[in-house]
Amino acid sequence: MKKSILKRVFIMNLILILCILVTGMLLSRFFLKTYYLKEKEKELTSIARDISSGKITEDKYEELEARYNIGIRVGSSLLRMPRMHRRMMRETPAMERLKRLENLKPGEITTMEYRPPNLSIDLMSIVTKNNSGELIFVSTPVSSVEESVAIFNRFYLHLGAVSILIGSIISYLFSIKMTRPVNEITRIAKKMTGMDFNEKCHINTQDELQELGESVNQLSHSLENNISKLKIANEKLKEDVEKEKRIDKMRREFIAAASHEIKTPIAIINTYAESLKEGVVDEDEKEEYYDSIVEEGTYISDLVSDLLKLIELEDDTKTVNLESVDLPRAIHYELERFKKLLIEKGIDIQVKLPKKCLVYANKNSLHIILSNLLSNALKYGESSGKIIIEVFIKGSRAIVEIENSGAHIPELELNNLWKPFYKLDSSRSRKYGGSGGMGLAIVSGILKKLGGNYGVSNTESGVKFWFDLLKI
Fold first, then answer.
1. Do 328 and 391 form a contact (C-beta atoms < 8 A)?
2. Nearest to residue 323, comparing CAs of 165, 469, 135, 461?
3. Residue 217: pLDDT above 80?
4. Which helix (H) or strand (E) segment is 73 a member of?
5. What pTM does this model have?
6. β-bridge partners, 464
7. What are 387-397's pLDDT values in tens digits?
8. What's the pLDDT score for residue 306?
9. 217-238 b/e with 16+ CB inside 10 Å = b?
């Protein structure tokens, strides 16, 4: 069963109060009388010495007797004494004691207790001699001491009861004040176990509890920071694991796709070469076979080059050197290269370019991007159609759009175009995306290195590819 620290502190304080009171009662019961008599003896001795030395004269006796409840006798004189004291002091000690007292020297002190025959009380007397040789008796009833002790003990019982009541209230209030910081620290600690680090200890006791509260706050801050860092590290680890899984999956798909792309032209080359070797090909067909072998060899060569380029682009350790490139000039250069093909296919070219627009790029990389996008527009665009090339500025970016007329691309397939070896048709025919479907993947990789954005969308008349670069 859980025990409250408030209850424990309260009970301990109450027990402490009771122990103090009981100890006081026992000391009063067994030692107060002895202590009182000792103090009374010192008091009477002081008075006797002052009388003996003459410091206290006879006219002061009555005042001293009334003040200290004592009786004074010098020699045989009982004059000027209250009636009770005259009666008390009339009775002298027994003869044998008097003989012993006669031997006292002036100023010498002795203490004696006796009970006079005509009184039923015990007396304590301090006896000395003055310079005249007279005996001086300073006496007090022992019963008065016992009565005073008894009265004090009875008063102490009532005092103890009141002290327990008041002490209980004070102890309870003290216990609340003492345990409040502990309860506050406990509450904060429970919240910390629940990963709640928002609340802090506010303890101002200027003692160890305040230091403990400050330590808990520091611990809470440290745990919050470390757990936050751990969460970030875990998220990063999850991302790395997921990334590794994706890369592994992409690697398997990449190998499978590359194997498929290379397998077909090799099979064609082997078939044509065996046919030529065995002489089963007519003379008029040999030239066609030779051309096909060269074409397939060139295709494999281009595919391997693109694969190496893509691998290089995916290497994060390698960077592209940026330089100032005139974007319109680069576009005009590529259009000049494709001029013959554009004329053969009857393509109408519409160009909207600024006179000059400098961008941060790599000259060779930019030509690869433009070449692949123009090649796709030619291959996938319709014959006798049109290609629109436009460059415009938006903020700090220069945006290039290349739109060709022709069939639309299914919306679900748009984002897949940038994947290596991806083609719209399941037969993996060689169109749309360069050699083996690598063109757009290379464009994507280069633009990532250059810090550019890119995309593709369907338009009313066909398909539009776009990319942007940082303008100078």
1. yes
2. 469
3. yes
4. strand 71-74
5. 0.45
6. 403, 457
7. 999 999 999 99
8. 67
9. beebeeeeeeeeeeeeeeeeee
